[in-house]
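request received
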Amino acid sequence: MNNSIKTVVIVGGGTAGWLTAGQIAARHNQKTADLSKQPIVKVILIESPSIPTVGVGEGTWPTMRSTLIDLGISETDFIRECDASFKQGAKFAKWVDGSDDDFYYHPLVLPQGFAKGDIAAYWLADQARSSQSESFSNSVCFQEALCEQGLAPKTIRTPEFSDIANYAYHLDAGKFSAFLKKHCLENLGVIYISDDVTGINSADNGDICSVITKNNGDVGGDLFVDCSGFSSLLLAKHYQIPFVDCNDVLFIDNALAVQIPYPDDESPIASHTISTAQKAGWIWDIGLPSRRGVGHVYSSRHTTEHEAKQALADYVGETVESLTFKKIPIRSGHREKFWHKNCVAVGLSAGFLEPLEASALVLVELSARMISEQLPANREVMDIVAKRFNETFLYRWDKIIDFLKLHYILSKRSDSAFWRDNRDPQTIPQSLQDLIKLWSYRSPADLDFTSNNEVFPAASYQYVLYGMGFQSRYEDFSPSLNNWAFAEQQFVQNKKMTEQAIANLPSNRELINKIKEYGFSSI
Amino acid sequence: MTNLVAIDNKIHKQVRIDSNKAELHGAELHLIPVVLSEFVNLAVQYPIVLTKNGDTGQFICVAMLGFKPHENLFWQHEQWQGLYLPLQIQRQPFFVGNVDVKNTEQGISSQQVVCVDFDSPTIVENCHNKNQGEPLFTDDGSETEFFQQAKARLAQLLQGEVTNQHFIEQLNELNLLQPLSVEISFINQEKTRLNGLYTIDKEKLSALSEQNVFTLHQAGFLEAIYTMIASLGQIYALIDKKNKRLEEK
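response:
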């Protein structure tokens, strides 16, 4: 019997389900010329008509651009139909000392000249010598200025998916999911079953041979993807794969979300996520073309729901009574492994973390891509792929947890137990403590991150460290700063690029309006 | 700036237009929008390419007159030194405007009317100087032959815009466009890289299916495509013009 992988069954829709279905179908299900040579993989997606999707993640990473390209989606259609706008990074307000003018940026454009040399050390040295006050991100990157002025990362003449400044998206997760579904069904040949999964039929070797549905009988397959959300039907409920809780590191355990309309149709759309620190958590603020999505994530060990609601109401300038809150419990952590037997979990069924660096959708994209690219040819090699998948993603989850924690431990806030507790060494992973120790003598470098599977580049660590006032003590090493000419050149070049970009880019709102009216060209 | 006024045979009876001065409107243009019906005339001297409208990002057909903003290499000694003057220049100072008119049957409807730009240098200042320019109307208020020709040019432009749009839609649909990437060195070592210009992708053109070639041919677009490709050679003539100008300095 031939046990090649011919049918992939995805349990659950939502962005995780449809992105995974789309990635696999786009790669393996295309009607190519040599149809006879290409094994066609059938992709079936079963979505419950009764369970609403959680709709996590209104922020993406720039990776979403290549994901959309992979799926054969036009950027114009995507922006029009998913209420999407451009995101050029994150602004962290009140994270360092909580004062009104306390903010820093984590932009998406790498520091000037980063591919050729690292200028962070020169910026630090400059700062120590001359007490110059230009922020790190403003000195090395032109994107903060664009965000502060509400400008778009490109113009209507820039081809689709190309940029002038690197960008990701803000989007309406519900609309995005419906958009992906339509595309998967109409263009990618994904087979859709609207039904509830009620049970599982196992094979002798412990594999899932089919899932039992309420109205469509048994649906068989060779690989099952668990996109069933928090309920984690296959991986957790069926296989009992344990959950690795990380609430000892990341204290956030609840989210309250509200939707805020704009004063009028022409109100500016922020082209970055705004994260404002609170007494026991932080508030996200995401600008879509038609509304803002604002939410408060907090630690219930450090505040009450009532206080959290009040803080959110204060932030948006409304009363608690006038707002409709959607409450989402957050259990920070992930499954002990993600691929077990012939079942792999993608999305919330694999795990979840607070949305501080928009890691939810990017993990879905990375998982979907790896499953699609490394789709095992047959059952024999599946366990090898599974092992590699698990190693890759455990590494990625750990790195993300470290990076999120970094934001908390660099804070100097001591106005509440939440911030003080966050700096307790007991709560800081050893891997992060080691890096911090290294970086107290030099800036984060690419060689600190040697895995093929890194999620955050060294530049991201630099933006957060130096944005938050971290000091790398270069004085002992100052003789090694022997390329001042290069560094000065980069600082000057960055000033020039900032001026040029400001002079030529439209506002985020203006560009969105033009996309709605005219659309982008493909070249 | 333009100051457009709808033309009226009573109010504008005395107005005279000196069409020799129309070319002043193009003195500082380096790209000028063109329509398909004039491609053959243009290709004798001008490279015909596409660029994106700065406001909308949509492709438009243009003739190249220079390599950078405000540089019209055909403008020399206060004159347009070209065999053919693009329609967009010839049409000066006439435009088509829309006015809302009251209509007894449908309420208010929009109607196209011919307007004149009264800030144009073609307007003869002293309208009693009968030696300069042409009138729009005869003594009995009917249109002069000059004005009728001007209106015919406007009609050609209006029709041309519709055809251009179909043409560009077809080019987009068949993926026949590619960025024009050329780096040019002038005689004074000055270098320029042509940015934001597009042309026909010849490889994709030759790979078109029979059916698509036939469709393009039927629409009259095949000729336009090959005229555009042939006109690219005029970039060398344009470089030559630029070098000569640099030598004069």
